[in-house]
Amino acid sequence: MNAITFDTFRFISRLKNSGIPENQAEAISEAIKEIHFTQFEYLADKRDLHELEGYLSTKADVTNVEMHVLELKRNIKELDAKIEMTKADLKRDIEASKVELKRDIKELEYRMTIRLGLMMMATAGMLFTALRYFPPTQPIIISSQQMPIQEPNIGKAPGMIQPTPTRPTP
């Protein structure tokens, strides 16, 4: 900033010529000098203004920024549309997965039911086979009646049906 000069001698001379005593003229001069330098200390000169011109944006700069803002807004709208499409695709995929999982669960239930049935049939077959070849030594009570005891088929040909004698109930 350029220095602004204030001629205090000339100012005091003017005040004295107008009839003001010298000590008052000096005090007034000092007060005005302080005000003058305090006020002008914050003023910009031509050099300061030229430095600031480089920082100020021109109309072309503002237009350029506005174009970038519009482009960003357009990009945001495109991204919003893509997000909505992706959300719809995900919802559709989730629903398809739910249907597929339900179908798979039903198929597994069916297969487990068949396996359980087969296991029950195999167990019953093994139980009947065991009872045929290894009859119980004590009567089995069914509905308060005794079941006839079958004699063991030791020494007899397998597959031949032998009449079984029944024992009297006590």
How would you concisely characterize the structure shown here?
With about 170 residues, this protein is an all-alpha fold. It has helices at about 10-15, 20-40, 45-55, 60-135; strands at about 140, 145.
Provide key terms for this protein.
about 170 residues; mainly alpha; about 65% helix
Low-confidence stretches: none
Strand content: under 5%
The side-by-side strand order for the widest beta sheet comes to 1-2
Helix count equals 4
Mean pLDDT: 81
Radius of gyration equals: 58 Å
Q: List SSEs in N-to-C order.
A: HHHHEE
Number of strands: 2
**Between the first and last Cα atoms, what is the distance in angstroms?**
136 Å
Helical residue percent band: 55-70%
- Structural shape: rod-shaped
Largest sheet: 2 strands, antiparallel
**Helix/strand class:** mainly alpha
Could you characterize the architecture of this molecule?
With 170 residues, the chain is an all-alpha fold. Helices cover 66% and strands 2% of the residues. The protein contains four helices and two strands. A two-stranded antiparallel ribbon has the order 1-2. The longest helix is centred in the middle third of the chain and has 75 residues, at 59-133. The model has no long low-confidence stretch (mean pLDDT 81).
Blueprint of the fold:
Elements: H1 8-17, H2 22-40, H3 46-53, H4 59-133, E1 141-142, E2 145-146
Helix pairs in contact: 1-2
